[in-house]
Amino acid sequence: MGSKVSLCVLFMLVALCSGFPGKKRQNTPCKEMVLYFHDIIYNGKNAANATSAIVAAPEGANLTKLAGQFHFGNIAVFDDPITLDNNLHSKPVGRAQGFYIYDTKNTFTSWLGFTFALNSTQHKGTITFAGADPIMQKKRDISVTGGTGDFFMHRGIATISTDAFEGEVYFRLSVHIKFYECW
User: Fold this and answer.
1) How many C-beta atoms lie closer than 10 Å to residue 162's C-beta?
2) What value, to the nearest 5°, has the Cα angle with vertex 28 and ends 180 and 128?
């Protein structure tokens, strides 16, 4: 009798660790969307239009110009408009709010942590993202770690790409979101 119970417990542990028998892993997204966010960094002269600001910089640097050497050590916070197309002047459907940290000394790389707060007729709720952004790569993937509202408990991957940039003051990111867990 004891060996049957042990075998049953072992089977249940294997089922819990590897997924229940018959449960198939989601290989195609249950929901997809493409959004754009527009970042205008404060440079000391554009306070009326700026949507982000440097809040930390290497010793001796100022907070209105990104540091040299791949911007290593700069931290910026942002509250950027999100649009359905790549036009900065399109009606916003929400805000991208978070930060990026330039964290590599030998190439342009940052670490992103941000939330899309959407409030439109199509979508209401938040989507939270986190991950490394090797900026020099054309397309990069970051994790979608959760959400609220229409995106309650959603998880997946967002493929980001730099859609446009103007020097070190403006950039626009295309964000192709693929949810693999939808509740």
Assistant:
1) 16
2) 25
